[in-house]
Amino acid sequence: MKMKKRTLFILIGPAFILFLVFFVYPVIRTAAMSFFDVPSMSVALRKCTFNGFSNFTALYRTSFRGSLVTLLKIWLICGSIVAVLSLIFAVSLTSGIIGKGFFRSMLYLPNVIPQLAIGYMWTLYVFSSRFGLLKKFFTWIGWTALAEFGWTSPDNMFISMCIAYIFSNVGYFTLTFMSAIESIPTSLYEAASIDGAKRTTQFFRITLPLIRNTLTSNITIWTTRVCAFFALSNVFVSNDTVSPLMYIYNVLFGSDSGTTAVGVGAAAAVVLTVVVVLVYALSNLIPKNKDVEL
Fold first, then answer.
1. Which H helix or E strand runs over 49?
2. Domain 60-96+107-291 architecture
3. Dihedral sign, CA of 75, 77, 83, 85?
4. What pLDDT is stored for residue 258 in this prediction?
5. CB-based contacts of 293: which residues, under 8 Å, 6+ apart?
6. How many other C-beta atoms lie within 10 A of the C-beta of residue 56?
């Protein structure tokens, strides 16, 4: 027994130590820094001045409020569209369609492309007002108003960014829903078909209830992705596209009104962490698969 415990420690120990050093310690230090007036990230906390919740109250007077609104809009609008499109694609690709492997690969392809590259691809080759794909397409079909639409203008930058972000996420969530749907016994669908249930009825009475666990997980994954939204904010630059992570970057490196407030940035990071935890807790209130009666 002692040998087994020793072997277990040898195998798990290095990973556990790395977890403590590179994850637990930064989280604890960031949480602690949010309560101090920190002049620099490399300064020890014992040399900093404790200021309580001043960093959190300071967030209310900065552009962080606007970035949270942007975060909520991205989470709600883009999330709803991604969920609907992913479910449509997942149901279609698990219904015996020819070439399922090809379409699955094409849908997932944007996930292996860096977000920065996706952003520039859309701005330079799709939304360009000179030779963009949308301009050429709408000009070809004679829709002049849409051909002249300023996709990259400051007023429309948020819409354009959302389109690019949806494009880069649909494939990942389609695959997760496909895996969940393919695990459902086909006998349930066969019995429903014999009873005369249509495809729509089968989806709402069989498919949707039995993928609730995946839906719960996807809500949490989507929330963490949105909270980590950063790259596209650097491409689609506008007052309406600044994400909380972009705000933290600007505060820490001095491009937000010329100030560098490490404590305020740490407080913003703590707020984002609390948001993810709350969404995770609320998503767990969704009934599990085992609560569904067949």
1. strand 49-50
2. Orthogonal Bundle (1.10)
3. negative
4. 45
5. none
6. 18
The per-residue pLDDT for 259 is: 47
**CA dist., res. 227 & res. 187, Å (int):** 40
What are 229's two structure tokens? 């939204």
Beta bridge pairs of residue 256: 259
Cα distances (angstroms) measured from residue 269 to each of 27, 226, 277: 9, 13, 13
Six-digit token string for 89: 């694609």
Helix (H), strand (E) at residue 50: strand 49-50
Contact 107, 170 (CB under 8 A): yes
Considering the chain, what is the average pLDDT of its residues? 85
pTM comes to 0.84
151 within 8 A of 134, measured Cβ to Cβ: yes
Q: What is the pLDDT of residues 130-164, one digit of tens each?
A: 888 888 888 888 888 888 888 888 888 999 999 99
Helix residue ranges, H only, 23-155: 25-33, 54-60, 64-73, 79-93, 100-108, 115-121, 133-141, 144-147
Axis crossing angle, helix 25-33 with helix 262-283, rounded to the nearest 10:
120
- Give whole-number Cα distances, 86 to 78, 175, 228, in Å: 12, 8, 21
CA distance 228 to 106: 24
Tell me whether residue 245 is exposed, middle or buried, using C-beta atoms within 10 angstroms of its C-beta: 0 to 12, 13 to 18, 19 or more: buried
SS (H, E, C) 134-186: HHHHHHHHCCHHHHCCCCCCCCCHHHHHHHHHHHHHHHHHHHHHHHHHHCCCH
Give the domain ranges of the chain: 60-96+107-291
